[in-house]
Amino acid sequence: xxxxxxxxxxxxxxxxxxxxxxxxxxxxxxxxxxxxxxxxxxxxxxxxxxxxxxxxxxxxxxxxxxxxxxxxxxxxxxxxxxxxxxxxxxxxxxxxxxxxxxxxxxxxxxxxxxxxxxxxxxxxx
Length: 125
Description:
Layout: H1 2-13, E1 18-22, H2 34-37, H3 45-59, E2 60-61, E3 68-75, E4 78-85, E5 93-94, E6 98-102, E7 105-109, H4 111-121
Antiparallel strand pairs: 1-4, 2-5, 3-4, 6-7
């Protein structure tokens, strides 16, 4: 689930910001992050946040320090994670890829689509 979250966070950084909920399925069913905690060093929410922040630090260029807030809530006896993302003034790369939001979806821009997006976001005066 962390890889999908990384792409989503990058997409928000590269557009108008937003928030991501981890632990809720697309059909709005609360599934929690408890299964994901098993893959974290501390096997708790602190370990989950550390793993997520470590991935952001290692995968994102430049590092979006101060643009991402991570919070946890308990709903229906399940823990969910809310990631609030502020827009970046820099283009954020994730392992040399650029992700953006387009409505309710994220897109990996390549080729001509990437060129046009960069032109729109950084017009030459």
